[in-house]
């Protein structure tokens, strides 16, 4: 089972395994406060895509499409997440302010289809 959560939110016991899926470490957050079990920066959008998107809502649909294409090349990393989620809950952590338009939502959609 997978869910998403902003990394700035307080960790909860029911988060299960906490996996940060951003390429950059979240600004102003100490590693011990984040309670991250794994940091999978390689599964995050490429730097080029991340910079292009810049969290502009008008680019959301194109961002989703491009990120999903990138994820098709990351089968091994996707499998690692799937394996983590087989017997326990996995919380995909992201730093973006927009809780509906971010890489975690795209990744969650992909994981649900696998």
Give the beta-strand count: 4
Total count of domains: 1
Major sheet: arrangement of strands: 1-4-2-3
SSE topology string: EEHEHHHEH
Q: Please work out how many helical segments DSSP would assign.
A: 5
What is the CA-atom radius of gyration, in angstroms? Answer: 13 Å
Main sheet makeup: 4 strands, parallel
- Strand fraction band? 5-15%
Distance between the termini: 12 Å
Low-confidence stretches: none
Structure description:
- By secondary structure, the chain is an alpha/beta fold.
- It has one domain (2-113).
- The protein has five helices and four strands; from the N terminus they run ββαβαααβα.
- The chain has helices at 31-34, 47-53, 60-71, 75-84, 103-113, and strands at residues 2-6, 17-20, 38-39, 90-94.
- It has a four-stranded parallel sheet with strand order 1-4-2-3, with helices on one face.
- Helix 1 (31-34) links the parallel strand 2 and strand 3 (38-39).
- The longest helix is centred in the middle third of the chain and has 12 residues, at 60-71.
- It is globular.
- It starts with a strand and ends with a helix.
- The model has no long low-confidence stretch (mean pLDDT 95).
